[in-house]
Amino acid sequence: MTSVEEPVRPGGRTRDAVRTKAEILDVATQEFARAGYDGARVDEIAARTRTTKRMIYYYFGGKEQLFTAVLERAYGVIREAEQELDVDHLDPVAAIRRLAELTFDHHEQHPDFIRLVSIENIHGAEHIAASEKLGRIGSPALDVIRRILASGQESGLFTADVDAVDLHAMISSFCFFRVANRHTFGALFGRDLVDPAQREHYRTMLGDMVIAYLTAERAAD
Amino acid sequence: MTSVEEPVRPGGRTRDAVRTKAEILDVATQEFARAGYDGARVDEIAARTRTTKRMIYYYFGGKEQLFTAVLERAYGVIREAEQELDVDHLDPVAAIRRLAELTFDHHEQHPDFIRLVSIENIHGAEHIAASEKLGRIGSPALDVIRRILASGQESGLFTADVDAVDLHAMISSFCFFRVANRHTFGALFGRDLVDPAQREHYRTMLGDMVIAYLTAERAAD
DNA sequence: TAGCTAACGTACTAGTTCGTACATTAGTTG
DNA sequence: CAACTAATGTACGAACTAGTACGTTAGCTA
Fold first, then answer.
1. Cβ atoms within 10 Å of B163's Cβ, excluding its own
2. What percent of chain A has pLDDT over 70?
3. Nucleotide nearest residue A14, measured CA to C1'
4. Could you tell me where in chain B the CATH 1.10.10.60 domains are found?
5. Under an 8 A CB cutoff, do B216 and A208 touch?
6. Residues within 8 A of A (CB atoms), B 149-188 only
7. A&B contacts, CB < 8 Å
8. For B44, phi and psi rounded to 5 degrees?
9. Which positions does the record tag as DNA-binding (chains A, B) (predicted)?
10. Which of B14, B104, B136, B159 lies 20 to 30 Å from A217 when distance is taken between CA atoms?
């Protein structure tokens, strides 16, 4: 986490723009994820910070921009994780599985991120659209998928003619749903999709599904 | 739709509890889906109705209960659709594909429902938990899946040993993601998952994926 | 160390928003 | 048709909430 954990300087508030800003972002992330954009309270964010509401407006301008900043950072984290992905030494099947597992793990470990994305979708992705940072930075995962896919299709191992974006959607949908819809799914079907005891089961299931799809025998078209 | 479309009785407001209630539900569904629970405005719902805010409280008690009622009706609609599913005459592969396509179609045709479910998840499914109606009514789709799965596994056609709930999650995740995350996905990757021109492509992709998973050759365990 | 500015705090306001007290009437029933 | 009740409308208030005007100070720099 990018959380702020400096030791509390005993007696006497030091000035530290970087720390203050980061602390606001941390708390805001939690608060927005907890209650949604409209449900989140600026006062609540301020209260749970070592600074005041004034600083939120000083550094971010307003609630809307704060939410955008929160989104930008959250997307940054997953991009970093994707960048560390090194699968060039693996055969296509293993590489895809590894990629799927990374997505699976990241989604599970960052439920707040999932919630933020859900919230942003409720609002038509208007903050992403307004953000310069998020505007045109394609996911590193896409490049990786493209390479794996090309090599797998060339060797004839992969029969499906999906492109990278579609495959990314397929993998993400399962990982995302599992975390995002955990509550309604659990309430309606009595099964906790994020139950730790079932983790390996679903992780394997995802990989099996993707590989089966990519390598299935298909009628000539 | 269960929408209210009676001809406007010219001159003179007639009393009609059923119509008023239904009209409130219609508008509330739109408003909650548009802006989320906290973003939705009770006054706005009332304004777009032929009645007043007073009636919302008269019939539903409050914003919270109104949202619950909206959810209950939305879930009712999908259950009805699932109940009309008749696949007993089909072989397991065709039956599963038909089921997947029904889910696909319903999700696409009811984006408001998807948004409501997303919103409910942001709030931890607390309204479902509090609802008697939604508490313990398993999805009819689950029963159908169970039957198809049993027949497919018995005949040796299906090699995967998933259960009905997991398969339902797999199918739903793709359908749900496509609609729910349409905006962020489009903004980030420049592809509209709900583009009508791509509809058949994704519909087929879902079926292929599920069938490939169910029928894939697997190492003995 | 004087001066300056980025960083910070307090107190307040204008506008909103859920909810309700109170008044009224359509339509039914005896 | 009198009486009654479900259904409806109006007007208002208490509480909340994003945002700001104004004042203060830490710590750097000349």
1. 12
2. 92
3. D26
4. 1-61
5. yes
6. 160, 162, 165-166, 168-170, 172-174, 176-178, 180-188
7. 165
8. -65, -40
9. 41-60
10. B104
Using the beta-carbon criterion (under 8 Å), do B185 and A169 form an inter-chain contact? yes
- What architecture is the B88-215 domain classified under in CATH? Orthogonal Bundle (1.10)
Instruction: Match 């994305």 to its residue by tokens.
Output: A117
Tens digit of pLDDT for each residue in B46-85?
A: 999 999 999 999 999 999 999 999 999 999 999 999 999 9
Residues of chain B with CATH 1.10.357.10: 88-215
**B62 beta carbon < 7 A from strand C?**
yes
Two tokens, residue B20: 């008023």
Q: Which CATH superfamily is domain B1-61 in?
A: Homeodomain-like (1.10.10.60)
| Integer Cα distance of B8 and A212 in angstroms | 56
Angle at B98 between CA B93 and CA B99, to 5 degrees: 100
Q: Do B213 and A212 touch (CB under 8 A)?
A: yes
Q: Which position has the higher pLDDT, A13 or B125?
A: B125
Has domain A15-61 been given CATH number 3.20.20.110?
no
Q: Look up residue A44 and give its two tokens.
A: 């609540």
- Which tens digit of pLDDT belongs to each residue from A184-213? 999 999 999 999 999 999 999 999 999 999
* Pure H helices in chain B: 17-39, 42-47, 53-60, 63-83, 92-109, 111-122, 126-130, 132-135, 140-154, 164-180, 182-189, 199-215
C-alpha–C-alpha distance, residues B105 and B101, integer Å: 6
- The string of pLDDT tens digits covering residues B6-56 is 433 333 457 789 999 999 999 999 999 999 999 999 999 999 999 999 999
> If you average pLDDT over residues B135-144, what whole number do you get?
83
Within chain A, all domains assigned CATH 1.10.357.10 are found at 74-215
pLDDT in tens, A132-152: 899 766 789 999 999 999 999
Taking the C-alpha atoms of residue A15 and residue A29, their distance in angstroms, rounded to an integer, is 22
What pLDDT score does B13 carry? 55
What whole-number distance in Å separates Cα of residue A158 and Cα of residue A161? 8
B89 CB less than 7 Å from any atom of strand C: no
3-class secondary-structure state, position B61:
coil
Cβ-based contacts of A174 with chain B (< 8 Å):
170, 173-174
> DSSP states of A137-188 as a string?
---HHHHHHHHHHHHHHHTT-------HHHHHHHHHHHHHHHHHTHHHHHHH
In chain A, whose CA is at the least distance from the CA of B185? A169
- pLDDT confidence of residue B160: 85
